[in-house]
Amino acid sequence: MPILAVLRDHLDARALGTGSDLVFGRRSAEPFDPKAIADRAKRAWADVNERELETAEREGRSPDLLPLLTFHECRHTFASLLIDAGVNPKAIQEFMGHATIEETFSRYGHLMPGARAQARQLVDAYLRRS
Questions:
Q1: Domain-by-domain residue ranges, the chain?
Q2: 0.70 exceeded by the pTM?
Q3: Which of 31, 56, 117, 123 would be 25's cystine partner, CB 3.0–4.6 Å?
Q4: Buried residues in 40-75 as b, exposed as e (16+ CB within 10 A)
C-alpha cells in the first residue's frame, strides 16, 4: 500500500513518540481494531469541533465545524487522489485490493479522465512524435 510522504511523516512521528511500531493498534496481538479506531476518530472530531464552537462563540462568528469522515470515505478519497494524479488504473486496482480491473472501473470509472477526446489527443500526439 503506498503511503503519501506527508502522511508517512506523521505516522513516523507518531510511532517514534510512542516507542512502538504500531500506529493504530495498542497491542501486537491486535494491531488493528476498526471499531476502536473509528471511536478514537469520532472523539478527535468532537474535540476539534468543540474547540471551534468555543472559539467561534468567543469571536462572535459562526462556527466552521468539520464533518465526520469515516475510513470508508477516506478510502474513496485516496482512490480519487490516485485517479486525479494520473496513476495507472491497474496500480489503483492493486492499491485498493480489487480482485479485478472491472471492479475498479465499475466503482471509480466515472472519475477517470477524458474518455474519447483525451484518447484521441493522446494518440494524435504519440503519432506526431513517431
A1: 1-27+37-67, 69-130
A2: no
A3: 31
A4: eeeeeeeeebeeeeeeeeeeeeeeeeeeeeeeeeee
